[in-house]
Design a protein that fits this description.
The protein has 336 residues and is mostly beta strands. It folds into two domains: 88 residues, Immunoglobulin-like (Sandwich), CATH 2.60.40; 226 residues, Jelly Rolls. Helix content is 4%, strand content 44%. It has two helices and 26 strands. The strands form six sheets. Strands 3, 6, 7, 8, 10, 14 and 18 form a seven-stranded antiparallel beta sheet that branches. A seven-stranded antiparallel beta sheet has the order 4-5-9-15-11-12-13. The longest helix is centred in the middle third of the chain and has 9 residues.
Length: 336
């Protein structure tokens, strides 16, 4: 039985948090003109990435074969949401940044040393050692059109296919076990009308990862072959938000147990029951929201060990919102 363990004690125990935050929106980074993107061939094969907010986004270019993007991130103001193929790999499918902003960042999620679909960002300054609030994500035009139509390398998506982003954190040199996962495409729904490929900016909450110094992004897909993933290994991000501080104090109404420091949500995927273990006996509200944002279930508790009846839910992805003392934690789960 797989459990999702979330280090969120300060939230569920009624903590009142002081959270100064910084947003990497990429708007202050310069580009020569409209419909262009960041390139830097001055140091072939080495990190020529960029900083924004309190994050370093690595980027590596190679001058071989006329020059190409080897791995990492590039910021862009490309607006081409139509052209298919690898020649349009710096464009976001929404054609703008989040909220209609001009710029955003694109990731080519590939490690040429390990041949894995991974890339990494490093926190800087006062963000180091604090949780990351999260970021907005969407598909690149290249990846979206490939999944929608198929191309010379990858197939068109049908029932049973999926494309997923996973984020894990490093803290003090160690990779943490918890992860946050987001489906950039999901054709696992019983009703084909519910299948989707993301083409809007969607929020990814990273607070469940707890304290981190850096983050590892990984892409995986149902479309793989002998050389690995066939789906284009790209995704786009915007408004990457870090915390400069994350100090908490506990109000006198909260009941705190020093040994209770995690929320556990299991099994994953759930069938008829979803179990939620809170850090302590505390008044809390559970709300289950489907992918469209509709509330599909709600219940209250004042106990540590809880079960939620999920038998009536349609199989798919849901968000469990846990509210206590005016604060919220969110956990994504799958109903099988």
């Amino acid at each position: 039985m797989r459990k999702v363990t979330i280090m969120l004690a300060s939230i569920l125990l009624g903590a009142v948090a002081s959270k100064a935050q910084t947003v990497a929106s990429f708007e202050s980074l310069s580009l020569a003109h409209a419909d262009t993107f960041y390139t830097n061939y001055t140091a072939s094969g080495t990190d020529v990435g960029f900083d924004d907010g309190l994050v370093h986004f690595p980027c590596v270019y190679d001058t071989s074969w006329g020059g190409y993007w080897e791995q990492g991130f590039a910021y862009s103001n490309m607006t081409d949401s139509v052209t298919s193929g690898y020649t349009n790999d710096y464009s976001a499918k929404p054609a703008t940044g989040y909220g209609g902003s001009e710029k955003y960042a694109v990731s080519y999620c590939y490690n040429p040393t390990t041949f894995e679909n991974t890339t990494k960002v490093h926190l800087t300054g006062t963000a180091i050692g604090h949780p990351v609030k999260g970021f907005y994500v969407t598909n690149s035009t290249y990846a979206f059109n490939s999944m929608r139509d198929g191309d010379a390398f990858a197939k068109k998506f049908y029932s049973g296919d999926w494309f997923k982003l996973m984020v894990k954190g490093f803290y003090e040199g160690s990779l943490k076990s918890d992860s946050v996962q987001f489906y950039l495409a999901n054709f696992l729904q019983p009703d084909s009308n519910d299948n989707y490929i993301v083409n809007t900016w969607e929020w990814v909450n990273l607070e469940p990862l707890g304290k981190v110094d850096s983050l590892v992004f990984s892409l995986s897909s149902s479309d793989t072959g002998s050389l690995g993933m066939n789906t284009p290994a790209y995704f786009c991000i915007d408004n990457f938000t870090t915390y400069e501080s994350y100090d908490t104090t506990t109000p006198p109404t909260a009941v705190v147990s020093e040994k209770s420091d995690v929320i556990k949500c299991y099994p994953q995927p759930a069938q008829n029951l979803l179990y939620v273990d809170l850090p302590t006996n505390a008044n809390a509200q559970f709300t289950i929201v489907d992918i469209s944002g509709k509330v599909v279930a709600q219940q209250y508790t004042n106990t540590k060990h809880n079960s939620i009846n999920t038998a009536g839910l349609t199989p798919g992805i849901y968000i469990l919102q846990i509210s206590s003392f005016g604060n919220k934690a969110t956990i994504r789960f799958i109903k099988e």
